[in-house]
Amino acid sequence: MIINFKKNLFIYILIFFTLINWISCEKNTNGKLSVFVSILPQKYFVERIGGDRVDVSVLVGPGQNPHAYEPLPQQMLALSSAQIYFRIGVSFEDSWIHRIEANNPKLKIVDTRLGIQLVPLDSFEDITLPSDTAEAHHEVDESPQHTEHEGLDPHIWLSPDLVKIQAETICETLCQFDSGNAPFYQENLRQFCQELDALSQEIQQVFINMPSKKILVFHPAWGYFSRQFGLRQIPIEIEGKSPGPKQLAAIIDFARKERISIIFVQSQMSTHSAMAIANELDAQVVTIDPLGEDYMTNLKQIATTIAKNVQSTGN
Ligand code: ZN
User: Fold this and answer.
1) From the CA of 17, how far away is ligand 1's center (Å)?
2) Residue 45 placed within a domain
3) CA 60 / ligand 1 centre spacing (Å)
4) 299 DSSP 8-state letter
5) Contact 20/77 with Cβ under 8 angstroms?
6) If you measure from the C-alpha of residue 208 to the centroid of ligand 1, how many angstroms do you get, rounded to a whole number?
């Protein structure tokens, strides 16, 4: 009886895996490149270049936080038959990349940070300290036990100029895998870059009359965005953590002096300390989404929201 059950169980497992295998092979035989990305904006980028030649899956889904994500077993299973994974440098990748590699040695892992000059993550301290002191602070931070990208800002998808560099890497990779369609990918890249330039110009216009260029944000996602568009983000979070009472008091003090009355937050993260500061300052909390899939529309909307709120309160 028990032996029979075990025998049957074995057969069921075998059938299960055969089915899974068959389904994943089916996916590949439709001729599309099977691609994985970490976050939703990347899905948009790859689809802009790859069009209907790619089948793109994303690890961090809507509403999830890329700083504390764990791929699901079914995502690992799907990754085991995927062809390309475009990583971008969000922090969950570091703890998972070796498992993803071991899971599918044939998977081509492409780092889309290639060719991008990463900068340290902004912190409230660096912004309020004189710039030479701030730089010294970073030099002290670079002790040998730190990993290559530790302390560097990963939010490279929020600057359209940097997206152009990422799009080039994506295009090159797709051309390598499917050289027969290289002209198609290259033409898509050309169009996409043109639209990114137009988007940059549009956003520049939105900010042109904004009286203050300083924006108080909970999570420091807007470093590269701010650099491109001449803004300055003042983050509440310090190295991924909510500030302590002393730091909180300093931020409140600073925001008061600067007459800041808006705090920008994102829905993927808890807004407790942002709320506390907002209460203290009698400020408003406004949500902007750094991870929206509809990239062009979302970024335009973010710019408009920032400009409108900063303007209407006259800070
Ligand atoms: Zn982030």
Assistant:
1) 37
2) yes
3) 12
4) H
5) yes
6) 26
Centre of ligand 1 to C-alpha 268, Å, is 9
Give distance in angstroms: CA of 67 to centre of ligand 1: 6
Query: Is the residue at 219 inside a domain?
Result: yes
Quick one: pLDDT at residue 11?
55
In angstroms, the CA 55 to CA 78 distance is: 12
Co-location of 67 and 166 in the same domain: yes
Answer whether residue 17 is part of any domain.
no
Burial letters for 119-129: b for 16+ Cβ neighbours within 10 Å, e otherwise? ebbbbbebeee
- Per the structure block, which two tokens stand in for 300? 């335009």
What is the domain count for the chain? 2
194/215 same-domain check:
no
Q: What is the CATH number of the domain that holds 170?
A: 3.40.50.1980
Q: Residue 43: which domain range?
A: 30-114+155-208
Along the chain (315 residues), what's the average pLDDT of each consecutive run of 10 residues? Answer: 57 53 51 97 98 98 93 97 98 96 97 97 76 45 52 96 98 98 98 98 95 92 97 89 87 91 88 85 94 98 94 56
**Total-model pTM:** 0.85
